[in-house]
Amino acid sequence: MAIEIIGTGRAVPNRRVTNDELAEKIDTSDEWIRSHTGIGARHYADENTATSDLGAAAGLEALKWAIQKGAVAEKTTEELALTLDLIVLGSTTQDYYGCPATACIIQNKLGAVNAAVMDLAVGCSSFIYSLETAAALLNANSQRKRALVIGADILSRVTNWEDRSTCVLFGDGAGAVLLEKTETEGRGILRSTLGADGSGWEYLGIYKGGSRNPWKKGETIDEGSTVFMNGQAVYNFAVGILTETIAKLLKDEGITAEDISMIVPHQANARIILAAGKRHKMPKEKLYINIEEYANTSSASIPIALDELNRSGAIKKGDLIMTVGFGSGLTYGGNLIRW
Ligand code: UT7
Fold it and tell me: String of b and e for 24-60 (b: at least 16 CB within 10 Å)?
């Protein structure tokens, strides 16, 4: 038995904002942003678009792909949506604070009335966690066959425009994969590793509005309701944990870095990715980096990358793909996938 990816999709807002455009309003420059992060542009959702809109659009694309490729017997996305047993959304910018779960809204948009739903929020590691969670839930019950796993975030809604060290980093977007339980052996999600170092919970987050710091009557929006980050602390954690996570997946699977066709890392900073890759002597061509176009889209960065690779034909059936990432919490993890 295997949990295979039979469809991928993505949805990225049309509005593209270059570093130069940001530099008109913020004390920054294209040179600084590119040299410190690798970012050249980002896409922002318009004010009428919420995370569920992007998430559902990416999910729909994944369903269409599976139909187009003849991976399923269903002929329409409506029919295929009815066969979904599960929708897992990885996100930290849900449509509504606390409840309802944004995955409920996505279920409704897709007409996936038979799907159980959940939101999973562990910062930028949310998609990696969601993939493993969906695979485990499919494996846990013989009646479950298909799951849609989505990573979607609209970070432009929670950006602190007064803080130039964070506001230039983020973009909006969504990506999705359609999972199916099959009788094949040795394919699909082979293994995952998930972890957290909760001692770093103060380094990256949105610290206003929860049970610790609830909104009080008459309060106005201040920087507490936007993303705070200790960039240096997160940077140092990130390089170490990406290196360790890659090593752990290789060791647990009994393979070497040469066996990997492509590493698909969370797109937080090109320097972090290259530093971790260097420690494993990975050639640059095997490290997928698209941060120049999208910036850091949090939970969406890995599924957007998977969809780009899939649609361009850069990854093919049988290739060994490794996702790896980290995020607020601090959380981390990776998935090993035989495409
Ligand atoms: O998925 C979310 C996880 N987050 C991350 O992965 C982020 C991890 N951290 C980083 O990627 C880096 O720490 C940053 C890109 C956020 C910052 O890069 P850095 O090389 O660590 O810069 P820094 O914070 O040490 O700042 C260096 C200088 C400072 O100026 P002074 O004090 O040396 O004069 C900053 O004020 O760069 C300045 N600076 C900027 N200058 C122009 C900070 N942000 C900017 C900016 N434009 N946007």
Answer: eebebebeebeebbbbbbbbbbeeebbbbbbbbbbbb
Any atom of ligand 1 within 6 Å of the Cβ of 124: yes
Q: Whose CA is nearest to atom 26 of ligand 1?
A: 165
| 310 noted as active-site residue | no
CB 71 within 8 A of CB 191: no
Q: Respond yes or no: is residue 48 known to be catalytic.
A: no
Q: Which domains does the chain carry?
A: 2-185 (3.40.47.10), 190-338 (3.40.47.10)
**pTM value surpassing 0.90:** yes
Catalytic residue among 19, 43, 104, 124: 124
Residue type, 81: A
Q: Which residues contact 14 (CB under 8 A, 6 or more apart)?
A: 43
Q: Is 296 a catalytic residue?
A: yes
Tokens 């409704």 correspond to what residue?
108
Write the pLDDT tens digit of every residue in 64-117.
Answer: 999 999 999 999 999 999 999 999 999 999 999 889 999 999 999 999 999 999
pLDDT digits (tens, 9 = 90+) for 96-109: 988 999 999 999 99
